[in-house]
TrEMBL record:
SUPFAM superfamilies: Alpha-L RNA-binding motif, Pseudouridine synthase. This is Pseudouridine synthase. CDD domains: PseudoU_synth_RsuA_like, S4. Residues 1-20 are annotated as: Disordered. The keyword Isomerase applies. It comes from Cryobacterium cheniae. SMART domains: S4. Keywords: Isomerase, RNA-binding. It catalyses: a uridine in RNA = a pseudouridine in RNA. NCBIfam families: pseudouridine synthase. It is an enzyme of class 5 (isomerase). The lineage of its organism: Bacteria, Bacillati, Actinomycetota, Actinomycetes, Micrococcales. Pfam families: PseudoU_synth_2, S4. Residues 22-80 form the RNA-binding S4 domain.
């Protein structure tokens, strides 16, 4: 856990201890928050927090490698060497940097970056959708670890006509071989007449292997196609299959805010 007077490494931080640090407005400008002058205005207006506490002194110095900054309650990444990329993973690509069986892997998408990126969590080979690539190990651990329960939203095309009763069952909970499971949210998007296919949206915090496919199989509607549309605060949006892009500053702030909040739970 991290208290209000500690950085991410647990280093105690206060105005006296940070006397040999860097001025806050300079750090904010270097991180791309705003110009130094605008950063000063943000500080004076009480919009900036250091390790959870509002700072209004323009002379405040901090240690960028250990102190945590928030502007308007949104986290700021001070380490400019970190990179965060969103990939719309295609079907047939395994979530690995080097597949032992020679199948297509994520190197096709990471080789274009100078940084050594790795994936946050996994999608099975036959599932497409949102996958985060980064060189931030701390953030990757928080977002991928099942104990932190970051929400993921999937859209599944399934066999047969799904009933409202089945949607309710998915939310109430079902029993699988490795224990009970329930969807945090379940919604029927389309259920055409006859014995065709239905579209179901599922939101889960579980990180168990192939969980959506196993849940839908258990209620009698095997998955035909599966896409992850959302991971935490990030949405796939209009990103085309096989394309990558850097996260925007807003998206990165939202993601860092979620990850820091999870570590305090």
């Amino acid at each position: 856990m991290t208290n209000d007077n500690q950085g991410i490494q647990g280093t105690p931080t206060n105005p006296e201890a940070a006397a040999d640090g860097v001025r806050l407005q300079k750090v904010m400008a270097s991180a791309g928050v705003a110009s130094r002058r605008v950063s000063e205005e943000m500080i004076a207006a009480g919009r900036v927090r250091v390790n959870g506490k509002v700072v209004t002194e323009l002379g405040r110095r901090i240690h960028p490698d250990s102190d945590l900054i928030m502007v308007d309650n949104v986290a700021v990444q001070l380490d400019t060497s970190r990179r965060y990329v969103m990939l719309n993973k295609p079907v047939g690509v395994v979530s690995s940097m080097q597949d032992e069986s020679g199948r297509p892997d994520l190197r096709e998408f990471t080789d274009q970056f100078e940084e050594r990126l790795f994936n946050v969590g996994r999608l099975d080979a036959m599932t497409s959708g949102l996958l985060i690539l980064t060189n931030d190990g701390d953030l990757a651990h928080v977002l991928a670890h099942p104990s932190f329960g970051v929400l993921k939203t999937y859209i599944a095309k399934v066999e047969g006509r799904v009933s409202p009763q089945t949607i309710q069952l998915l939310q109430n909970g079902i029993e699988l071989d490795d224990g009970p499971i329930s969807a945090d949210k379940a919604r029927l998007l389309a259920s055409p007449p006859g014995d065709g296919f239905s579209l179901v949206e599922l939101t889960l915090h579980s990180g168990r292997n192939r969980i959506v496919r196993r849940m839908m199989e258990a209620v009698g509607h095997p998955v035909v196609d599966l896409v992850r549309r959302q991971f935490g605060p990030l949405h796939l949006g209009t990103l085309r299959v096989g394309d990558v892009r850097d996260l925007t500053k807003v998206e990165l702030g939202q993601l860092l805010t979620v990850s820091r909040a999870e570590t305090k739970i």
